Amino acid sequence: MHTPKTTFHLSVLAAFFLSLSANAADDSLNRDSLFGDDLPKLSSSPKEAGPGIKGFVQFEAARTIAAPAHWSKLRTRAELGSSGKLGEGLKWKLGARLDYDFAYAINDFYSSEVEKNQRYGVELRENYLDYSNGNWDFRFGKQHVVWGEMVGLFFADVVSARDLREFVLPEFDQMRTPQWAARAEYFADDFHAELLWIPVASYDNIGKPGAEFYPMPTTPNVRYLQEIRPQRDSDNMNYGLRLSTLKNGWDISGFYYRSTDISPTFYRQFDGPTAVFQARHDRIHQYGSTISKDFGDVVLKAEGVYTKGRSFSILDLSDSDGVVQQNTLDWAVGLDFTLPAESRFNVQLFQRRYSNYNATQIPDKEENGYSLLLNTKFINKWEAQAIFISSLNRSDWLLRPRLAWNFERNWRLLLGADIFKGPATGLFGRYDQQDRIYSEVRYSF
Predict the structure, then answer these.
(1) Is 395 part of any domain?
(2) Both ends of the chain: CA-CA distance in Å?
C-alpha cells in the first residue's frame, strides 16, 4: 500500500511527466513542407487529382507480462481522411478516427470507468479549410500545430493536446489531438511568421484511475474527484506568436504562447486519512525557442521552453491544496548521426530546472536525463529500432526495442516490447508492473 508520502512522490513525478512528456514535423521554412508530408500542399497545381479517401486500418495487440499477465490492448483502429480544393487558393481536409478495443470485452481486469473510457472511441481528426493569398496562408478548423521536434519526449511541442492513455508509447502523430484553431502564416524570403488563436481548446486525455498508464496511484488511501476542464469562454482562449528564420543553414525560431495548460495538475486535500486528488488546468505563459542545423551526416537540434504559472505537487501535509506554483526551464539538445548501411543514431540530453525551487518538492532542483536511439534497415524489408530514455538523477529508465517488416506494399507488421525499470516513485519506474510485448498490423491506402 502506498503511504501518503509515496502518493505525493507519484503526484509530483506525474506533473513532471505531463508537462515534459517527442516527435514532430520538420521546422523547415519550405512552404510546401510546413504542415508535414501527410497534409495537402498549399501550392496548387492544374493537374491535381480530385478528392479521394486515404488513411489506414490497423490491429494492435499488447499483453502486459508482469503478474498477473493480461491482455491490455486488442484494438482495431481505422483513420480515414479526404482533401480537395474548392477553387483557386482554397482547399479543405476532413478526417475521422474510429477505435474498438476488444480487450475490455474479454476480461474484468479493469473497472467499468476505465472500460467505458477506453473500449471504443470516435474522434474527429484534422478538419479544416486552407486559404492562400500572396505571402499569406490561412487555416481555419481542427488542426495539428507542431512547434518542436525531439526524440522520445515533448519539449517545444506545446500546442497540440495528447492522448496519454498509453503514456508516450504510441507514435506521436497518433498521440496528438488537433486543436480548433485559426492560424495565419506569412512568408517572405527566409522569414516566417505564424499567428495562432484557439477559441475552444482540447486537453490531454489521461484516462481514468485504474487504467494501465494512469499517471497517479490507485490505492485504498487515495481517491479522485472528477477532472475539472476549463469552461469554454474568453478567459480560457489560447493564442500565440511564432517567428522563424533560416540563415546560413541555421533554422531558428522563437515563440510566445498563452494558454490554459493542456496538462493537468493534481490538486490535493485530505478527507480524514484519505488523500483526495483532483486534476485541474492552470493558466500559463510559455516562451520558447528551437534551433536546428544540418552538418551533412550530423544534424543538430535544440529546444528550450520557459513556463510561468504551472503548479507542482509538494510534500507539505499542512499545505491547503498540496501544490506550489513554479517557473521552469525545460531544454533539450540532440545530435542525429547518419551511419553506413542505412542506419541512424540519435543522442539527446535534457533538463528541467526550477527557478524558485521549493524544498518540499520531490524532484531535484535540476532534473537531468538522456536518450539513445539506434535505427537500422536490413534484408527483406526489415527495420530494427531501439530507444532508451533514462534519468541521470536516479536509476529510472524505459527501453523500447522494435522490429518492423514492410512485407507487402502498403502493409506493415510491428513487433516490440516496452520495458520500465526504476523505483515506484520514478517517472518510468512507476510503470514497472506495466512491462508489455506488442504487435501491430497496418494497411495504408
Answers:
(1) no
(2) 49
97-117 pLDDT, tens digit per residue, is: 999 999 999 988 999 999 999
The boundaries of the domain holding residue 156 are: 4-338
Say how many domains are in the chain.
Answer: 1
Label the pairing between strands 323-339 and 298-313. antiparallel
Buried b (16+ CB within 10 A) or exposed e, 77-92: bebbbebebeeebebb
Helix (H) or strand (E) holding 196: strand 191-200
pTM of the predicted model over 0.70:
yes
- List CB contacts of 49: < 8 A, sequence separation 6 or more: none
Whether 390 maps to a domain, the answer reads: no
Kindly state whether residue 294 falls inside one of the protein's structural domains: yes
Q: What are the φ and ψ backbone dihedral angles of 212, each rounded to 5 degrees?
A: -55, -40
On whether residue 359 sits in a domain, the answer given is: no
Domain containing residue 75: CATH number = 2.40.160
User: CA nearest 238: which of 280, 191, 186, 181?
Assistant: 181
Q: Residue 50 — very low, low, confident or very high, per pLDDT cuts 50/70/90?
A: low
Instruction: Name the amino acid, one letter, at 380.
Output: N
DSSP state letter for 205: B
Q: 131 by DSSP, 3-state: which?
A: strand
Q: CA 6, 7, 10 angle in degrees (round to 5)?
A: 90
